[in-house]
Design goal:
mainly alpha
Length: about 625
C-alpha cells in the first residue's frame, strides 16, 4: 500500500519562514538560503497560510548545510580532523525512546521564558556580534559575547570559536605544505575544549554544535544522538540533518536510523534527508527517484529548484544522463544564475561528449563568478573533453585551492593525470579525495586504476575492494577487480568477481559472459565455459543480433558436446547447421565438425547406449526371478 503524501500546511510554512529569519540572524546563510528557496517554491496562497501565526517559542535558529564553496563565516565547509581517530562501528546505541517524540526531552516553559528575557537583554550585543561575524572578525565576536547569558549569544560565541580554530588549523597546515610533516588534513586541536562548552546543552542549536564536534572526534553514535535531540526540538534546521547524514557510512545504517527519527516517515524533511544522504553515498535507487517526485508534487514543493537538483543528482547516479540533463535544464530555465550543482550538469555533458553545450555552459558561468570551485570544474571538464589535459589540471587545481574539501575536483584531477600517464600525480590527487571523503567510491576506484597502471596489482586489489564495499552492485568496478585478479593469475577469484558483476548487469549483457567463458576454459572447466557460451547464443538470438556476434560461442558449445563429453548432440547439430550456412568466420570449423566429428560422436553414443542396455539386461538375468 502506498504511503499517503504529506501535505504542506501552515505549520510547515511557519517553520520555513522562521528558519529563514533565524539562520540569517546568526550569519548562517546557507541554511537560510535552503529554507528560503523551499519557501518561495510554494504558491502565494500556501505561503500566506503561515503569516497569521508564526510561532517563536523555541527560538528557532539554524546552522548552514555544507556549501561546496568555502564560506568560513557561514558554513562548516572547512572541516578538519581531531588528533584522535577511531575505526567506525556499525551499531546504534540510541535508545528506542528517541524514536518516540512523546519521550523526547523538551525545554520547560520557564526555561524558554528566561531565555526570552536574556535574549532581549543581549539583543544589542548580538546585533554587534553578527556584524563582526559578517566581517569574519571571530575573535571580536567571542570577546563581546562573553558576558551574555542567552543561548543565542552562546551559540554565536561557540560557533565563532570553532571557525577561528578552523582558520588557525588551516593556516598551520599550509605552513607545512610540500613537507613530510604535513598531515593529510588540517588538525583542529580545539575540538575537545569546544565540546566541553556544549556538553550539557539542552538548546537545540547548541545540541547541533555538540553533534558536529562529536562527529569530528569520531564519536559517531553520540553525535547521532545529539543531532536527533536537536531535530526533535527544531526539525527545520537542515544543517542538523546534514550532520546526521555525515555520521552514516552506508545505506544499511540509514535504514536502521529512519525509525528513530522524531518525525513521520512521510514528512518532507525525512524524505529529503533520505535522498540527500543516499546521493552523498553515491547509491540512490529508483525508490529515491520516486521520493523526489513526491516532494515535487503539488501537495509539497512543486517548484523547488533544490529538490529538482536533488532529483537531477539521483538520475545522474543512476546513469540516466538524458533525463538528468533535462532536469538541470529545467532548473536553468527558472534561474540561469544558480551555481549550486551546476558541476553535475557539466559532468553529464562531458560523459555525453556534448562539446558545444559544455563550451556554452563554461562561457556563461565564467561570466557569473570565476572564483567558484564549481565553475572551475566546468572549465576543467571543457578542456578535458578537448583533450587539453594540462589546462584541465590547472582549473581543477584552482578549484581545490578555492575549496580544499571540493571532492569532485580532486577526483577529476586524478583522472586527468591518468590520461597524461602520470600515475604518481594521479595517486596523490586520489589520496587527497579519499582524505576529504572516505565514503566516495570514485577516489578508491581511481587509486586502484592508478596502481594497476604501475603494475602494482596487490595494491590495486586493496583499493578495488574498498570501492566494491561502497558500491556493491557496480558492474564496472567488479569487472576491473576481476581483470586485476586475472593479471595476477588468480583465475578462480577473477571468475568470482565477474559472477558478482552479473548481479547488477543488464540481463542482455554478453561481454561478461564471454569473459567468464574464457576464464573457465583456461581453468579447464569446460562444462561451465560451454554454459556461458550457450547463454551468449540465446541472448544474441533473442535480440536478433547477426550471427557473426555469436558464431564462435555456438561452435564452442557444439565442440564441447561432440568432443568433450557434453553429450547433447542434437543441440550441437542445430548450432553447427546455423553457422555452416552463414558467412561467419567459423563456417569451416562448423562444416568440419558436422562432417567428421559429429557422425563419429553419434556412433559412439549409440554404441554406449547399446552397451548400457546389454549390461542392464545381464544384471537382470543374473538376479533371477523375484521370490514372492
Amino acid at each position: 500500500m502506498t504511503e499517503s503524501v504529506y501535505k504542506v500546511d501552515a505549520e510547515v510554512v511557519a517553520g520555513l519562514r522562521n528558519a529563514v529569519r533565524d539562520c540569517s540572524e546568526r550569519g548562517l546563510l546557507y541554511a537560510s538560503k535552503w529554507a528560503a528557496e523551499l519557501l518561495c517554491s510554494l504558491s502565494p496562497a500556501k505561503r500566506h497560510l503561515g503569516q497569521a501565526t508564526v510561532p517563536h517559542a523555541n527560538f528557532h535558529t539554524s546552522t548552514p548545510a555544507r556549501s561546496r564553496s568555502p564560506r568560513p563565516s557561514i558554513s562548516f565547509s572547512m572541516q578538519t580532523p581531531a588528533p584522535i581517530t577511531h575505526e567506525p562501528v556499525h551499531t546504534f546505541p540510541l535508545q528506542p525512546p528517541l524514536g518516540d517524540p512523546s519521550m523526547l526531552p523538551v525545554q520547560p516553559p520557564e526555561v524558554l521564558q528566561q531565555e526570552a528575557i536574556w535574549e532581549a537583554e543581549d539583543a544589542d550585543q548580538i546585533a554587534m556580534a553578527k556584524a563582526f561575524m559578517d566581517s569574519k572578525e571571530y575573535l571580536r565576536v567571542i570577546h563581546w559575547l562573553r558576558p551574555c547569558k542567552s543561548a543565542k549569544a552562546a551559540f554565536l560565541r561557540v560557533y565563532s570559536q570553532y571557525l577561528e580554530a578552523e582558520k588557525e588549523a588551516l593556516r598551520e597546515w599550509y605552513k607545512l605544505e610540500n613537507t613530510r610533516e604535513q598531515p593529510p588534513e588540517p588538525v583542529n586541536t580545539s575540538l575537545h575544549d569546544l565540546l566541553e562548552l556544549v556538553k550539557n546543552a539542552t538548546d537545540p542549536w547548541l545540541l547541533f554544535l555538540k553533534a558536529v564536534f562529536l562527529y569530528r572526534l569520531s564519536r559517531r553514535e553520540e553525535a547521532m544522538e545529539s543531532a536527533i535531540l536537536s531535530i526533535a526540538q527544531y526539525p527545520w534546521n537542515w544543517s542538523t540533518w546534514i550532520a546526521l547524514g555525515d555520521c552514516l557510512a552506508d545505506g544499511d545504517e540509514l535504514s536502521s536510523l529512519l525509525p528513530l527519527l522524531p518525525l513521520p516517515s512521510n514528512h518532507p524533511l525525512v524524505l529529503m534527508f533520505q535522498v540527500k544522504t543516499l546521493n552523498s553515498l553515491n547509491s540512490p535507487t529508483d525508490n529515491e527517484l520516486g521520493l523526489c517526485d513526491r516532494l515535487l508534487s503539488e501537495d509539497c514543493f512543486p517548484r523547488s529548484m533544490w529538490i529538482m537538483a536533488l532529483r537531477g543528482n539521483v538520475l545522474y547516479y543512476l546513469h540516466d544522463f538524458t533525463a538528468a540533463e533535462a532536469q538541470f535544464r529545467k532548473i536553468l530555465a527558472i534561474d540561469p544564475y544558480r551555481v549550486d550543482d551546476i558541476d553535475i550538469l557539466s559532468n553529464i555533458l562531458y560523459v555525453s561528449e556534448n562539446n558545444n553545450a559544455l563550451s556554452k555552459l563554461a562561457h556563461d558561468y565564467l561570466a557569473i563568478d570565476k572564483d567558484r570551485p564549481e565553475i572551475c570544474c566546468i572549465i576543467g571538464n571543457y578542456y578535458s573533453l578537448r583533450a587539453e589535459h594540462e589546462k584541465a589540471v590547472k582549473y581543477f587545481r584552482r578549484a581545490t585551492q578555492l575549496d580544499r574539501t571540493y571532492l569532485a575536483a580532486w577526483t577529476l584531477m586524478g583522472h586527468e593525470f591518468v590520461e597524461m600517464k602520470n600515475s604518481h600525480a594521479a595517486i596523490e590527487a586520489y589520496r587527497k579525495a579519499v582524505d576529504v571523503n572516505k565514503k566516495d567510491y570514485r577516489a578508491w576506484y581511481g587509486l586502484a586504476q592508478a596502481y594497476e597502471l604501475l603494475g602494482m596489482h596487490q595494491y590495486a586489489l586493496y583499493y578495488y575492494q574498498h570501492a566494491t564495499a561502497l558500491r556493491p552492485y557496480d558492474v564496472r568496478i567488479w569487472q576491473a577487480e576481476g581483470m586485476c585478479y586475472e593479471e595476477m593469475g588468480r583465475l578462480k577469484e577473477a571468475t568470482e568477481c565477474l559472477r558478482r558483476a552479473l548481479i547488477g548487469a543488464d540481463p542482455q549483457e554478453t561481454t561478461i559472459h564471454l569473459k567468464l567463458a574464457k576464464l573457465h576454459h583456461d581453468l579447464e572447466e569446460f562444462a561451465e565455459a560451454a554454459a556461458y557460451h550457450r547463454r551468449i547464443v540465446e541472448v544474441c538470438r533473442s535480440a536478433q543480433k547477426p550471427i557473426q556476434e555469436w558464431s564462435k560461442s555456438a561452435v564452442y558449445v557444439a565442440r564441447y558436446h561432440i568432443l568433450q563429453g557434453g553429450g547433447d548432440l542434437a543441440l550441437a547439430r542445430q548450432y553447427l547447421e546455423w553457422v555452416s550456412v552463414s558467412n561467419a568466420e567459423e563456417v569451416t570449423q562448423a562444416n568440419e565438425l558436422l562432417r567428421r566429428h559429429l557422425p563419429a560422436a553419434v556412433m559412439r553414443q549409440q554404441q554406449q547406449q547399446q552397451q548400457n542396455a546389454a549390461s542392464a539386461g545381464g544384471r537382470a538375468a543374473s538376479e533371477g526371478p523375484s521370490i514372492a
